[in-house]
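Minutes, project huddle
Topic: does the predicted pose make sense with beta-L-arabinofuranose bound?
PN asked that the exact inputs be recorded in the minutes so nobody has to dig through chat later. Recorded below.
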Amino acid sequence: MRRLALTLLLAATPVGAEAPSPGSNPIIRDRFTADPAPVVIGDRLWLYTGHDEAGEGEMFNMREWLAYSTTDMQTWTYHGPIMKVADFAWASKDAWAAQVVAKGGRYWLYAAVEHDATKPGKAIAVAVSDRPEGPFTDAKGAALISNDMTPKGTHSWEDIDPTVFTDDDGTTWIAWGNRQCYIARLGADMVSIDGPIREITPPHFEEGPWLHKRGGLYYLTYASLDRATHTDERVFYATATSLDGPWTYRGELTGSGEGSFTIHPGIAEFKGRWYLFLHNAALTIGERNGALGRRAVTVEHLSYDAQGLMRPVTQTAAGVTALSDADP
Ligand code: FUB
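Predicted holo structure (tokens), as shared on screen:
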């Protein structure tokens, strides 16, 4: 596997340039990837991404979701496409941001897609598999969340970017949104909404929410856009002692991804260390340079201060250090 990873690294290295060391950013170099979503399953960290295939003049061209996994945070095994947007019969296009979570011995994928003309606008799909590497199949046969379920929204793509989180009491929650951020409890079947949809939009919220918990504190981390001061998204966050809120705004966690209008956080603890996954647009593959629709996933170490606040993260080319079996 190590030889395969090295071969892929060399294949993406321009002639005459020194090959980057394994594990350096961006971590995937042989295809353009975006919207990273990590999850720890057993002794591996699994990473699900979108697949950016935009050509010249195209904003996005995303048709499928990909899976990778690692044991050491340096070498990444590619598991291929796990599902295509065409596998949702009711969706028309756009395999946008997704997250996979484990529950009840199965693996659940929640993803943003474009609904067909029967319910115009973006929607959130749910799929399931018995294995993290898929294949995943449509678990509901219809949208879990569609544009008509959040009528207050100001535009047709407000229902994107699901993040799914299971609390210590076993209840599972989904948050999502663009410009508006919503949260709702999922039914025990994982394919229904159980209870009200509440709006929890934090300051400068744009998209890409990510829910996690550490100790007794909940974190809502998201792609922000303060249009008065910035042209590209950055990552901000808020904290709360209950998912019912109130949420306390905590400001910037990290700045924009190099060359990229969008950014998208994904957070996981793996073998005792915390990681922040992001994307930028700094990768060139052959003739294709990074762009709005040709992004590249990165990862950085994440740490907390004594109050449990996340310390600001500097994005690096070096990436994260290797985990060894000796690590906790
Ligand atoms: O990748 C398509 C969209 O761009 C995602 O859904 C957003 O989070 C932004 O990254």
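Observations noted during the meeting:
- The two ends are 24 Å apart (CA to CA).
- The CA atoms of residues 112 and 124 lie 5 Å apart.
No decisions taken; revisit at the next huddle.
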